[in-house]
Fold this sequence. Notes:
Blueprint: H1 2-18, H2 28-38, H3 53-72, H4 81-84, H5 104-132
Transmembrane segments: 54-72, 105-124
Keywords: Membrane, Transmembrane, Transmembrane helix
Amino acid sequence: xxxxxxxxxxxxxxxxxxxxxxxxxxxxxxxxxxxxxxxxxxxxxxxxxxxxxxxxxxxxxxxxxxxxxxxxxxxxxxxxxxxxxxxxxxxxxxxxxxxxxxxxxxxxxxxxxxxxxxxxxxxxxxxxxxxxxx
Length: 134
């Protein structure tokens, strides 16, 4: 292996000995710069948000008008909000029939999983931040 490396090195040295350095023509840098400057200027990409500001202002104004309507348009009687706006009552009775009983092993495993995730997320974030910053 070393013998092959020595032969390759000798061959490269012989080739380099016969080869001369090429020199750039006079005013080469000036010509390149003048060609670059003569290229048409490209427009920079301007950030344009997906949702314009006036839409955000309209949404905020509509939300504020809705809140103002609920607060200031209160009738004199003490009717509930669902009665006042004819909202049907929703019952969640189906959840009252379900009972959960967890074993202590499952509880320990869940706590351990949460602890490991809480430790690993900052460590991975730090690792990837260091990897991405050059």
